[in-house]
Amino acid sequence: MTSSISLEHLADIAGGRVIGDASVTVDSCGLNSATLAPGGLFAALPGTRVHGARYAADTPAAAILTDEDGQALLLEVGESRPILVVEDIRAILGLVAAEIYGHPTEKLTVLGVTGTSGKTTTSYLLEAGLLHAGYSVGLIGTTGTRINREPVPTSLTTPEAPTLQELFARMLSEGVTHVVMEVSSHALELGRVRGTRFDVGGFSNLSQDHLDFHPTMEDYFEAKAALFDGPQAAERAVICVDDDWGKRMAKRAAALPLTRVATQGEADITARQLSTEATGAQQVEMTIAASGTTYDFRLPMPGEFNIANAALATGMAAAIGLDPQTFLDGVEKVAVPGRMERIDRGQDFVAVVDYAHKPAAIAAVLDTLRGQLEGTPGRIGIVVGAGGDRDSSKRPLMGAAAAKRADLTVVTDDNPRTEDPATIRAAVIKGAREANPDGDIREADSRAAAIDEVVAWARPGDAVIVVGKGHEVGQLIGKTMHHFDDREELSRALDEVLRHSANQDLAGYRDSDDDSQSKEDA
């Protein structure tokens, strides 16, 4: 619940100073001038082009939180409301917001998942297992926010600090006991989770991504490490040590109660695949060993990476005292939107949509598909594209990861944003052709046409996958968001091929019937 907090009190927390009446109180906080409630504290942050202080006049705020530059802008226009001035707004905004909203995470059990890939899947596994165990669960992540599986409108993988704390307070008021959330490197670097108490922090893996934001992989690693070492650290850590980054992260978390999980080698919790179901390999029989007990269960999604995600989720659940068997019983029916999501319209080949949008993730999903086709003559086709205004160095690596493993690579657009789409495609194609000079590599300047092409190419027993957007239902071209859902488009393309095939069969039947009739007449 929110409280009316004086600026004087907030200044003590933030290490700032108040210009004007320090006894003025606020009962909410926000960054968006269009949605701030009357009586709230408007956080006027510096932007890349415009300082947020320029929008303060349009808000019904009781007071304004800003930095020295923002203060100067406000005084220039004769702002008369109290101003709380701090050196670095983002560094203290989470603490201020948590104070205003009554520190809700002190009364919640919060499980935070970080890493490059697997955050969403691990979060869904945790949500399913916790709900099955009888808890009331909030979920915050890439696919949105949910309270006991009911959607709550939000944006960003990890919302900005005021929105996040307000969301925690709402969850608490609605009876939520446990919150599972994805914790992005941006959120850690930008202080969005300051003021949030994490009972458990989980780490999945690290591979190249977001190098448009983090200068190097070391910087990217350090951002993730903030969940395990320093003022934002969780109380307990569960870390997948399958790769070198995980082993390094475990060392960084050495001061915390630590659980290591792995799908290879030794660890506190280990997970292994037993066998793959013959029916399209959409479930994996696996075993998890924890505390001297072995648990066999069916994971309803394929891939070695998902076995690692299941191990991480189980370790995080165990870290809060949940019995692994109870947890895993709830995991067996989980479905994660846009993650190795099978699209079945009655076609005689496998069709899948996945969110993979970084080189390692593309390699992993293609290796999974190849494993499903092992022992058959089936081929793999992929539709792949890279986003604009983001890390450009990964584009050729994405193309290479696809072309090394797929029999057909169709390069198209993802979210080009304000970049020239053809330039982005050229970088992906360059990497693909360098990796596989003799490969079947094609270009389509329409994502829908690319999906049509890979579906038309497929033969019985093949597999096709459309990667990059997963659960997303929009394509950002320029600054305009257009409705586009890979799942809808793949379904449409499959329906058209099946309809065309049915028409051909019908035409053949009629021709045959005409022939037999003419023979009878003769």
Automatic annotation (TrEMBL):
Pathway: Cell wall biogenesis; peptidoglycan biosynthesis. GO terms for biological process: cell division; cell wall organization; peptidoglycan biosynthetic process; regulation of cell shape. It is found in: Cytoplasm. ATP binds at G115, T116, S117, G118, K119, T120, T121. Gene3D superfamilies: Mur ligase, C-terminal domain, Mur-like, catalytic domain, MurE/MurF, N-terminal domain. GO terms for cellular component: cytoplasm. Pfam families: Mur_ligase_C (PF02875), Mur_ligase_M (PF08245). SUPFAM superfamilies: MurD-like peptide ligases, catalytic domain (SSF53623), MurD-like peptide ligases, peptide-binding domain (SSF53244), MurE/MurF N-terminal domain (SSF63418). The keyword Plastid does not apply. GO terms for molecular function: ATP binding; magnesium ion binding; UDP-N-acetylmuramoylalanyl-D-glutamate-2,6-diaminopimelate ligase activity. It comes from the Bacteria. Its main location: cytoplasm. Keywords: ATP-binding, Cell cycle, Cell division, Cell shape, Cell wall biogenesis/degradation, Cytoplasm, Ligase, Magnesium, Nucleotide-binding, Peptidoglycan synthesis. The modification N6-carboxylysine is found at K224. A motif (Meso-diaminopimelate recognition motif) lies at residues 414-417. Its cofactor is Mg(2+). Residues 338-470 form the Mur ligase C-terminal domain. Meso-2,6-diaminopimelate binds at R390, D414, N415, P416, R417, G468, E472. Its EC number is 6.3.2.13. NCBIfam families: murE, PRK00139.1-2, PRK00139.1-4. Belongs to the MurCDEF family. MurE subfamily. HAMAP family: MurE. PANTHER family: MUR LIGASE FAMILY MEMBER, UDP-N-ACETYLMURAMOYL-L-ALANYL-D-GLUTAMATE--2,6-DIAMINOPIMELATE LIGASE MURE HOMOLOG, CHLOROPLASTIC. This is UDP-N-acetylmuramoyl-L-alanyl-D-glutamate--2,6-diaminopimelate ligase.
